[in-house]
Design a protein that fits this description.
3-stranded antiparallel beta sheet, 6-stranded antiparallel beta sheet, mainly beta
């Protein structure tokens, strides 16, 4: 089949040899408008179909969400929430201790998505300095009390975690943790106060949590999140 370069419109003639790069001649309404050598990759890319760009929509997220991600098929997701500095009553064993201060915290959750349900498989808890805007370079400290391991994994004890039907319901899960009984598990290396747990709680009642008591982890928020997802 012969090509008539006198036809109207754009015409490209590609000449391929065994020893040289492809040579392309461009014609517009029968008039040559350009010519030159092109790489084999450029020629191959010219024949590729256009790529349709997709979009990714998250579910409705808790208001305090710092970060959310999910795997391609949606079967697993992670969500990190910021908890503002605050004071609350907690149970230390059987004793109720009022006005216990907490620094700014970041709660992380790993969830499996099964049908219409989300199952929490792991939870993580770290602390941050209480002032300034959190960003990728913000330093992450160990949670300064008990029931959280040095690798940030939350120990739930006998607390039963509910099955969720929406990611936005994660806002209720930190309350489950705060309202559970505090033991002495994992407390020994949790902070830099050098005080026994009960003495620390009584010392800090009604005050802000002293940031000099926070124990460094050597991780930034960016490092921490990316290690856990």
């Amino acid at each position: 089949m012969s090509l008539n370069i006198e036809d109207e419109g754009n015409v490209q003639i590609i000449k391929i040899s065994d020893f040289n790069l492809p040579y392309v001649e461009d014609y517009q309404d029968g008039i040559k408008t350009g010519e030159g050598y092109h790489s084999h990759e450029a020629i191959a890319n010219a024949f590729k179909p256009p790529v349709e760009l997709g979009s990714f929509a998250t579910p409705i997220l808790p208001r305090s969400t710092l970060y959310y991600s999910e795997v391609t098929d949606g079967s697993k997701c992670t969500c990190f929430l910021e908890i503002a500095p605050h004071r609350r009553s907690i149970y230390y064993h059987e004793a109720l201790v009022d006005e216990v201060p907490f620094p700014r915290l970041v709660f992380g959750f790993e969830l499996l998505h099964r049908g219409d349900e989300y199952v929490i498989t792991r939870a993580f808890l770290g602390a941050c300095e209480s002032y300034g805007v959190l960003n990728e370079d913000s330093e992450i400290y160990l949670f300064p009390y008990s029931n959280v391991r040095s690798d940030f994994v939350v120990c739930w004890g006998g607390t039963e975690r509910p099955i969720l039907t929406r990611i936005s319901q994660l806002t209720t899960i930190p309350e489950l943790f705060f309202n559970s009984t505090n033991s002495d598990c994992y407390y020994n290396t949790a902070n830099s106060s050098n005080l026994p747990y009960r003495e620390l709680l009584e010392t800090l009642k009604g005050k802000d949590f002293p940031e000099e008591y926070l124990k460094k982890s050597g991780k930034t928020l960016f490092n921490w999140v990316n290690e856990l997802i």
